[in-house]
Amino acid sequence: MPPLQVSFLFLVSLSWMDVFTGLSNASHTQFSNFGSSHSSNSAQHQSVSVNEQLEEKWYASPEEINEGVCIILSNIYSLGVLLFELLCQFESERAHAAAMLDLCHRIFPPTFLSENLKEAGFCLRLLHPEPSLRPTTRDILQSEVLNRFQEVFAEELSSSINRDDTESELLLHFLGLSKEKKHKHASK
């Protein structure tokens, strides 16, 4: 078996926590000794595969992991993970991976809690380990958090439209002035 495949199998066989804590070190150690650029590209591809596996694990609901069953409420769990990732800011890939590992235990970074208190509460509901206790799609659509997102989006859209209108008015004014100058120039 080529050394690169052994290295990949080594990485895959690690527990998720080992992958998180040692991914950069292990991949650098395992893959750095191969001189060709082909090996380097393969190492990057292997690392991407490990990252994809991590993401699949992060987004999988407890019932998907434990029972291999995916139900509609499993998607609600995944929505909670996505919402968390969209709202939380991470200092590094390592911090991101650590936060995602904690997320499966419903543990949020302190900064996320302090900056997004209502959203954190909503995420906790979406991430509930018991599927029947997660909100329904109707509950989500009627939630205060989602309505607030819609209000913010509407305000930003309105602001953007106002900026576009102002820019259009300035452009029309400029074109009008240019047209007047052309007529004055043509009449001379």
TrEMBL record:
Keywords: Signal. It comes from the Eukaryota. GO terms for molecular function: ATP binding; protein kinase activity. It holds the Pfam family PK_Tyr_Ser-Thr. Gene3D superfamilies: Transferase(Phosphotransferase) domain 1 (1.10.510.10). Residues 1-26 form the signal peptide. GO terms for biological process: photomorphogenesis. Residues 1-146 form the Protein kinase domain. The keyword Calcium does not apply. Coiled coil: none annotated. This is Protein kinase domain-containing protein.
